Amino acid sequence: MGVDRRTFIKYASLAAAGNAAALRPFGALNALAQGTTGYKALVCVFLYGGNDANNTLVPFDTAGYANYATIRGPLALSQTGATPLIQLAGLPNFSLNPNLPDIATLFNSKNVALVANVGTLVEPTTKAQYLAGQIVPTNLFSHPDQQLEWQNASQSGATSTGWAGRIADALNTSYNPGASVPMITSVAGDTLFCNGSASTPVSVSPGNLGGAQCSEGTTECGAQLATAQALLSFDSGLTLVQADNTITSNAYAYAKTLSAATQSVSPLKTVFPTGNGLAAQLQQIAQIIQVRAALGVSRQIFFCGVGNFDTHSNQLVLQNALLAQISPALAAFYAATVEMGVQSEVTSFTMSDFSRTFQPNSNTGSDHAWGSHHIVMGGAVKGGQMYGTFPTLALNGPDDSGTNGRWVPSTGSVQYAATLASWFGVSAAQMPTIFPNIGSFTTANLGFV
């Protein structure tokens, strides 16, 4: 059977991009290593679209809640009733969204910390400085720009590397010298976060680690694979094409290596929620962590994501449904790390474009804002506490960059990232290379892990 135009273009693109079966490249494969020591992993959970932090962490004291309910109007969550806010044992004046019960339990058991009012900052910034147009990150309130700036921690979208990629550049030789996989794995596609200058990530599709196969039937799959393999052997004489062929060849080899490693162990007993995209991604990450010794890694960084949090309308329904996916997914992942005995070696954390306006819009939704609140989870986390400074919830107040509740961050995203990097093994001397503007902040380590 011949290969049609759609199939040819599909596989030509895979070879050209080095992205066969959603796999990103890495260097020459090594034999399976035997054992690792001092293992640590970071797991980034990106909340695409801008999660409304104002309805994630909510004032619970009488005066605070009354102010919140008055300004939030139709977006206000109930303090009582059928689905009340969840009061936190360690923070009597604050509560969590009722769709985050597992996060509340982990917070109360001191395995989750909350970091308040974090956002992209070039350096510590006041409301007056922002209004004067001083030291402002590039294209605030823009989804693509703020996603990039959270991922590269340089407060400008115009960089080719992310902070995880730069960590891999700095630490890979020291910590993973004999690894058969890259330090970074994405289960949510290609992202700037994962890209380094000297190191590259690998991307896998959840549930399809060996996915060099396809699902279009035996005949079509055979034709597609033959086309891909033919492209790999094509000798064009062009350096770029030959490099791309090597990339794709490495991707196929990686799929084989990772599949062999994961198939050699008994499945984890932890049950992950079904029909939950984030849970599927985290389950795949857990399975890769399970075979860390066979892969020869002592440091790993993972990226996963969920969306869409761009709730310009019907926010209560949309955000609550998304948070109801995140809560059991993160809880199952933490349980899996406990099952593997690595709960103190794996730290998970959220990132998002930005928060949303405290004042609702006319469509029972909210608009793009700035400072947000984030979740950090793991056995090494100094949990049951809130870090950073919670903003004053007043329109046109001291923390509002305008008049509808876009909080000027009190903590920079680079400080948040640097704290995680320090725990992971980045030295003080390496920090300025990975985070070029960290020297602009008095505190480089927020102490939550």
Q: What do you see in this structure?
A:
The longest helix has 26 residues. This protein has 13 helices and twelve strands. The radius of gyration is 23 Å and the shape is globular. It starts with a helix and ends in a 15-residue tail after the last helix. It is an alpha/beta fold. The N terminus is likely disordered.
Distance between the termini: 57 Å
Q: Uncertain spans, ≥5 residues at pLDDT below 50?
A: 1-36, 212-218, 239-246
> pLDDT average, as an integer?
86
Got a strand count?
12
User: Structural class of the helices, strands and pairings?
Assistant: alpha/beta
Helix content: 25-40%
Write out key terms for the chains shown.
449 residues; three-stranded antiparallel sheet; 13 helices; alpha/beta; 12 strands
Q: How is the topology of this model organized?
A:
Layout: H1 5-17, E1 40-47, E2 57-59, H2 62-72, E3 86-88, E4 91-96, H3 101-108, E5 112-119, H4 127-131, H5 143-152, H6 163-175, E6 184-186, E7 202-203, H7 218-232, H8 239-263, H9 277-290, H10 292-295, E8 299-306, H11 315-340, E9 346-352, E10 372-377, E11 386-387, E12 411-412, H12 413-424, H13 431-434
Helix pairs in contact: 1-7, 1-8, 3-11, 9-11
Quick take:
It contains 13 helices and twelve strands. It is an alpha/beta fold and 449 residues long.
